[in-house]
Amino acid sequence: MTNARTLLCAAALIAVTTAVTFAATQDGDHSKPTVHHDILDKLWGKWNYVVTIGSEDGETEPLLLDADYRWALGGRFLVGRFDGYVDGGLFQAREILGYDSFRGEYRSVWVDNNTTAFTMATGAYDARTRTLTFKGVQDNVDKNIRDEPFRFVYRFVDDDHFRIEVWRPNPSGKMVKGTTVNASRKGIEDENN
Predict the structure, then answer these.
(1) pLDDT tens for residues 2-59?
(2) Does residue 186 share a domain with residue 109?
(3) Considering the entire predicted model, what is its pTM?
(4) Which structural domain range is residue 7 located in?
(5) Same domain, yes or no: 73 and 159
(6) In this structure, are residues 178 and 53 in contact, taking their beta carbons and an 8 Å threshold?
(7) Which ranges constitute the DSSP H helices of the chain?
(8) Which of 57, 59, 133, 145 has its CA 20 to 30 A from that of 73?
(9) 3 state DSSP class of 136
């Protein structure tokens, strides 16, 4: 009798799990771009980046980078391409941004020519403040530290301007703003001068 009840309960559990899984698949199509991709569309196009890096000694001279964001794979992922010169050397980076509708979060993957490390983060959009905030851990190869926490925030000013703030821990562990990027859509500053 006990074995029969156990089998019946197991069969019922399998039936319920199958029904819930089937309903979730029918209700949520995770294969197509969603309204959340519209937030990322604000980044589409060519940009001038003015990058300021803060340190304990103050801020560096601003660096200039060219940025270009393009949709890939049927509008599912936004690929950012960044090119410029840092300390007299060529700097190149790529970022893949997307919205993972299965997990319900934004995702970012960053790689650049200064290291072989991958930097990955997950994020959320706040419509009230017009910010897209990502959090993650990264390997700080300069300091030989693995899994260092960080966050970066896209602040959308208007259709032609946004700001990125990158926060990392200082030596005491407190999160401080280290890098700021002021972005303006290419051609905008020419019209204003």
Answers:
(1) 444 443 443 333 333 333 333 333 346 788 888 999 999 999 999 999 999 876 666 6
(2) yes
(3) 0.78
(4) 1-30
(5) yes
(6) yes
(7) 2-27, 37-41, 188-192
(8) 133
(9) strand
